Amino acid sequence: MNMNGTDVRLLFTAKEIGGNIESKGLSRPSRSPDGRYIITAYRPKAFQYKCVIFDLKTRQAHQLGPGRCQSFDWQADSQAVYFTGGKSWKQALRYDVTTSTATPLSPPPESKLGELNYDTDFVRGRRSPDGKHLIRQLNHNAMQRVTDSKNQGVFTLPNMEYLGRKAYYAKECNKGQAFSADHSTFTCNTIGDTFSYYRFDTPKVVAGIAPQRWIVQEGQWFMSEDNNDINRLRQPEEDSPLSAVHYTYTGKGKGPLNVITGYFSMSISQNLREDYNHRDFSAFFPPLPSPDMYWESAYRQLDAQSKGGKRG
């Protein structure tokens, strides 16, 4: 559906891909920039995971093997996607949709990684903004063994030459990152009511505070992890007593909208990507109330409450 809830479409079913779709976290469905493909983890049986790419044009599901896949990173031309997965959930791969082949991303056998083991000590993975490097996170056990704060390994692409350990992200991000819809900003996988967020081109400098984990548009729109709502912050030019407003999605009647209960994932179509962060989506939603609207509503609800009526 569109961000404002219109044009609801059923993209695919659990039957078409072989099991229940993983709908939250780093394995939530990720759509290619051209809109044609979706990669996600799914569960064919309880406590089992597999990874799949679904082609919305041909209606074919391309199975990518057992285990959960996550950290999806599409090329801008939609011809390939980088991700981690496999039985150990640690293997880094690149899947080419033009050839339907998945290529493991591993350093050459002669590579020297010091105290680290590539197959057991690294998790997740994402390309640098210029696409020339793969940044992988040390897992908890590996971080306990090193004596400094350099908790990411950097590899060149495509040959996977190891450049060493780096403090690529802020230390708050040692448990991973939740990237924005356009992959330019991210929050850290920490626990709290608010989240510091960072720009991917300056990944150790706090760019702002996010009220929710998933960033739809920097400084303006955010999405919760578990609820079926999005949060818009008041902008400097807006005159309202509210600092933010939540828009909640609910299903009514029959059809696809009736099954929407939360766990959103978001993609940005090609025509919106240019100057994306300056686009104004607020016109498609009810506005923040002006002071007059706010107080009229407050007095009306207080009056109804005093008379034993319902708020409205």
List the helices and strands and how they pair.
Blueprint: H1 14-17, E1 20-21, E2 30-31, E3 37-43, E4 50-55, E5 60-66, E6 70-74, E7 80-85, E8 91-96, E9 101-104, H2 118-121, E10 122-127, E11 133-138, H3 140-145, E12 152-156, E13 162-166, E14 177-179, E15 185-188, E16 195-199, E17 202-210, E18 214-217, E19 221-223, E20 229-233, E21 244-248, H4 270-273, H5 291-306
What does this structure look like?
The protein is mainly beta and 312 residues long. It has helices at residues 14-17, 118-121, 140-145, 270-273, 291-306; strands at 20-21, 30-31, 37-43, 50-55, 60-66, 70-74, 80-85, 91-96, 101-104, 122-127, 133-138, 152-156, 162-166, 177-179, 185-188, 195-199, 202-210, 214-217, 221-223, 229-233, 244-248. The strands form five sheets. Strands 1, 2, 3, 4 and 5 form a five-stranded antiparallel beta sheet that branches. A four-stranded antiparallel beta sheet has the order 6-7-8-9, with no helix packed on it. Strands 10-11-12-13 form a four-stranded antiparallel beta sheet. The longest helix is centred in the C-terminal third of the chain and has 16 residues, at 291-306. The relative contact order is 0.10.
